[in-house]
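new request in #modeling-help
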Amino acid sequence: MIDVIISQIIFIASLLCFTVGGIGALLLRKNDAIANIWSNFFAILASLFGLSFAALAVMSGGDTSFSIGAFSLPFFSLSFHIDQLSAFFIFIISLISLFCSVYAIGYVKHFYKKYDIGVLGFFYNMFILGMLLVASSSNWLFFLVAWEIMSIASYFLVIYDRHDQNNVRAGFLYLIMTHVGTAFIILAALLLYKFTGSFDFASIQSASLLIPAPIKNIIFIFAIIGFGTKSGIIPFHIWLPDAHPAAPSHVSALMSGVMIKTGIYMMIRIFLYMIWPVPVWWGLALLVLGSVSSLLGVLYALTEHDIKRLLAYHSIENIGIILLGLGSALTFLSLGMPSLALLGFTAALFHTLNHAIFKSLLFLGAGSVISQTHTRNMEEYGGLIKYMPYTALFFLIGSMAISALPPFNGFFSEWLTFQSLFAGITLLSFYEKWIFILASGSLAFTGGLALACFVKAFGATFLARPRSSHVSHAKESSLSLRIGMASLALLCLLLGIGSGVMTVVLEGVGKNMAVFKNAASVVSLSGQHIVVGKNFASVSLPLLALFFMVTGGLVIYITKFIINKHQKVENNITWDCGTDLTERMEITATGFSRSIILIFRGILRPSIQHDIQYHDAQSRYLPKSRTVILKVHDVYRYYFYQPLHLAVNAVSSRVKNIQSGNTNAYILYIFIALIITLLSVLWK
Amino acid sequence: MSTLFLQFLLQIIFLTIVFLHITKKNLDAIFAYGIQSLAILILLINSFFETGDISLLFIALLVCIVKVILAPGFFAQLIKKNELIFSASTYLNMPLTLVVLATLTAMAHSYRFSPITNIIPANETLLSLALSTMFLSLFLIVNRKGALSQIIGILSLENSIVAFAIFAGLEQSLGLQIGILFDISIWLIIATVFISMIYKQFGSLDVTDMKKLKE
């Protein structure tokens, strides 16, 4: 039975279901409801196939290789190779797709009669199909086709709500950035081909020693730019905060939770599989990039009052945390410490899985709120916990998980990352040690700021009083939305409590890779404790969970049955100094983050604009209204992309001169090019 | 046929291209193109006698119809219909044009191009000349402002390639040759229609006048 499930047939069935779901939705586009049910039913079915295949492939440890069709093209083949690493990423893609598709059944209804549901279903299925192909392909050209399917499908999903010009602009920026990234990926692939003579991943790996060290460094830089753009690593992130919020929320969840991880997957595939061994500085560079991305990602998130942009910036932060794990793994491996490298690698994989789950949950929660309030501006929320209690609970769980609060899953993967960094501080020499110290500091800062950010997000959205009429008309979301969110919330808890088991499984994924073949495990399970090294650090999540439950229970018990035992509780209106409590007395999202923004003003460069209107402009004693506008400028746009844009424009305007519009001139160019080509060939 | 005669035919092709560069009258250009195509036809018939391949005779027949009769006929009608007696001017003046022609011919004969012209060592001189006819045809397209001259330049380039292929022993399959000829005949029809329309629209076939399209 297990053999049947992990056989290629199940995986191909998954791919076929996505194809049928997509094409069928397009054919049934005349009827919104049927197109919606069709596309999401097949997406759910395909996800279940993918999930069962990937889960058992990860557990059994077997590799699957196969090709589809008999192409006689010299470089191109539809060849798949699914080892445990691929299976792990297929597992993440299928898992999140499953819950997003369940959620979508209800969520998509608010697009009925407004947009074409068949088109949404088509691109949604193609998008997931593209991601699965990316994670399973084993030939560069096939991979690039899959990468484009994923990118183009996601572009059309970003501009799906095309009546909003901001979404169209965000899509355009995404399209440009993703293709700039693809250009660098192609260059990296061509360099690999030039020195190994093959586009096949396994052949490249076996011939990797033929690649000279300087070329390897160039490939590393190209891969970082190419895949880093897709992952949203700072400074290649500018498309992400615009594009992710623009898409429908279940798509945002997939983009932020899963798509950006395909960049991480390919980095692992190249650095730890294709061109290993690598120099030490690659790992250290990843640590620096990870530190910068995590810290600045969370700082920018703090400045946001658009709930989806806030979540999108947190994706940048979490990609940074994953890079910290991956960077430490690369550094340890290059320095001949495979066991510690395995620890860092496990942390990176675990955080990849955890982030996929809690970020999807948060995006689905945000989508649920937006579908009721029709705005993404948190300043117009408030008090939603009374109207949407389930959504509030699920969003709270997601917020706690992303803030790394125990007993949820985010805590443990960050804890493992910390242990990996601390090990580096203890064991490495001066130069590397300081980078590990800075990375640890950055991670600690990031954790604290993320907590502050989600206190703001949850507080401004769900607590206090409604700040707009939309909120007071909001209703709890439908069953399919709640099922989607509840399942992910439950997973946040289960993966937290079962983190010990997950660590062992993920270590197995690492050990399946050739670079970790001889690495001894640093993490061990001692009862309910997870121990790193020989008592270097230990934690027990079930005990922590028990501690929180007992503490919570005790607080409730003491308050209710001991302190208030002889007191009669009366419910009254809060004393308000004789005035009516209104929403204007609440702290806003901007107000909450103001002090933190001002602390980091050197980096964030905020500008504050005050505006006061008086009842009587002459006397100026009685203000009618006060406005405070707190703006944060994107320093990357000002100091990196705008100068780059100007330079490209200047060069383009000069180059434009050769395009005279005269046919003779064009033929002359061809003539000259021909002569030069002939001479250069014949010169040899 | 002797090599001397083949060389004579190739020299005719070469000289017709030089003439195409010099002439100002469209009818003369068409006449020169007809002569050039006739030389190609004789070369193909020669190949037939040498190899005995009947398909070459068939191709020669097609060349005769398309290049020697149809193409010059189409152009002659076009000139008559639109009264295009004189062609448009060139970008370079005559002395400079001749200098460039001499340079390109010398380049084609230089030892740098010997890997190309030495495919069949016995025909090296002929291949060098054929290569220079290709360069000169390309330059004709570049240097001429008139659309008609440019079209003749393209057809002349095609003739040069055929001549080079014959001397290099690179004759292609019958299907491919027929395909090329069919391609040329269709191309001729389209080009003729286009030229008529361009002339109607702009009142000239000078491509520099077509810059107005951009405005």
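bot summary: Helices of chain B lie at 3-22, 26-51, 54-82, 94-109, 114-117, 124-143, 147-167, 174-202.
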